[in-house]
Amino acid sequence: MSWLSFGPMMMVKLFYDSTGGIFAMYSLICRNAKVSLIPNHQLQAEKRMSSFRLKLPTPELERSIKVKEKLESSPLLKKLLLGLVLFGTAMFISNGVITPAMSVLSAVSGLKVGIPHASQDIVVMISIALLVVLYSLQRYATSKIGFIVGPCLLIWFCCLGGIGIYNLSRYGPAAFKAFNPLYIIHFFGRNPFKAWLSLGGCLLCATGSEAIFSNLCYFPVRYVQSMFVLLVLPCLVLVYLGQAAFLIANQKSSKRIFFSSIPSEAFWPVFLLANLAALIASRTMTIAVFQCLKQSIALGCFPRLKIVHTSRKFMAKIYIPVVNWFLLASCLGFIVLFRSTNDVGNAYAIAELGVMIMATVYVAIIMLLIWETTIVKVISFVTTFLFLELIFFSSALSSVGDGGWALLIFASGLLMIMFIWNYGSKLKYDSEVKQKLSKDLVRKLGPNLGTMRAPGLGLVYSEIVKGVPAIFGHFLTALPAIHSIIVFVCIRNVPVPVVPQSERFLFQRVCSRGYHMFRCISRYGYKDKKQEHHNTFERLLIEGLEKYIQREAVELSLQSEDDIDSDEEPSTPARIITAPNGSLYSLDVPLLMDFAPSVEPIPETPCCSTPQDPALDYTQNLELELAFIKQAKQTGAVYLIDNPIVKARKDSWFFKKLTINYFYAFLRNNCRRAVVSMSIPHSNLLQVRLTSYV
């Protein structure tokens, strides 16, 4: 009975652990300190986004700065933070596999109470059939059956509370003595070793209820929090007290206590409702796994997968086909391997406690770095939760031989996949940064870039955010012509939930105005929908480019000539070349002579004439450049994409060659490209595969 003393204490952590909050907390730390090892992680300019505006400094800002400096200056701490978040994510995904297996198997096992001669094989087969149906309908259930979740959970928890009240009224209120902490002290005093071993099983009184927090995609946060405190927690306490009262009166009963304590008249309705609730819990935990993996993909810690948004109203309703079938196969594997709730429960406790411990560590770091909490509160929080969780975790590890070993192997495999992907991506990014072209080389080529400037918009995709990517040099030497406007596009996943559309694109001019080269950083949060059609993406990008040019012209017109940036190159004198078809093109404003703007052209001023008003020059340049962009837009856009083959250098050590040449190459060949979701036609796509040695 005395395990009830631990239940409410563990409930406090459920909200953080059940919503995939480890990655959210890791991204929050990365926003405030440069601690991430993920390539291409944070730009100073991104702090202008509204999502990055955090709390104002507090009187304890000095301690926060010291913590930040320590984290940023220590490579070991950076690797440790990343390792902890990868481990926590692996345990969370394992929890998403164990929860359906445990919930459905335990609910169906109640059949043995209603039909005593039912065998365990029948229970296993029914559980497998229910899970197959559940995961087969997962894509449709996410968007079309979600409206029944609320009423079903309400009826289920009210039913639990009613059963608890019934058992308390029938068998007496002696179970309320479990709230007295002296009983747990006496229990540890009489049987310390057995009491320690029982802690892992006691944790199951709190786990399972976290599935309600996975419904945040359907209900507001405040509503879920209120219902948890006002409905879920009281009903859980009542049903556990009722089971304790039943055990006091029936001390020989030790299996399937919940179903045995149900009144015989209400057994079958409650049995069906229990199975429905188990399926709902399994479905919601699967959605939570989808959300966690989407966050890890966005932050570069998991291979890119196809993500399907199943609702236009709710952004959190997503479906990942590959992960869905992987979870089904894993659940069936655990059920067939163990065939009983006891062994599955042992693995469940290990997964749940692993997530809780990682959440405690990250909350403590956030308290020091961001919330700037007093050191007394931080120490109290860490010592209270971490001490209890480590005790429970040590007890759960004692059951490794009874089923926990399978979960540890499963989590280790997931951890290895995430580590290999992050490690290979970082080496690939570092190699691209070293091989990028210098701006001096581009300036020597001149505005024509040493080749012909053809009409149109060229979107060169790269993962680097500074400099000219090396693949652009290959395009210049291999293609007979290059587009009149070049935009280096970098799709970046920033550690914020949502990036407003007005802050989606960040533009910067590459070289001087005559080159017509720009850099565009397209930023997405880990909850943003990235499946934009290529026409929509082009339209938004061109609109953002036009606004950038207009804003640039306004800023320059407000400055005097002496205030202009000294790094800006002087405009190159206009030169005319003859194309093979006999047409004349300007190298400074390519193909502009073929376009007739709607406004009256302003005649060029001879060099010997009196200088014009600078504001007039800016206005003229703005009109010409906007007209030039319009011409390129009408011609169309071509996507220039580099799809390199990454290999380890010949002088690399054996394990690096094995990791990069085989494991990382396998993951890259089977994951999705960042631009695949845009549905780019093959006629507008140009891909190049070069070998990159890291």
From TrEMBL:
Identify one Gene Ontology CC term for this UniProt entry.
membrane
Q: Write out the entry's keywords from A to Z.
A: Ion transport, Membrane, Potassium, Potassium transport, Transmembrane, Transmembrane helix, Transport
Topology versus the membrane: Multi-pass membrane protein
* Parts of the chain that traverse the membrane: 80-102, 122-138, 145-166, 196-221, 228-248, 268-293, 314-338, 350-371, 378-397, 403-424
Where would I find the K+ potassium transporter C-terminal domain in this sequence? 455-688
Subcellular location(s): the record lists: Membrane
Output one GO MF annotation: potassium ion transmembrane transporter activity
Q: Which domain of life is it from?
A: Eukaryota
Stretches assigned to the K+ potassium transporter integral membrane domain: 18-439
InterPro entries per the UniProt record, alphabetical: K+_transporter, K_trans_C, K_trans_N
Q: Name one Pfam family in it.
A: K_trans
Q: What does this protein do?
A: Potassium transporter.
What family does the entry list? Belongs to the HAK/KUP transporter (TC 2.A.72.3) family.
* PANTHER family recorded: OSMOTIC STRESS POTASSIUM TRANSPORTER, POTASSIUM TRANSPORTER 15-RELATED
Protein name, please? Potassium transporter
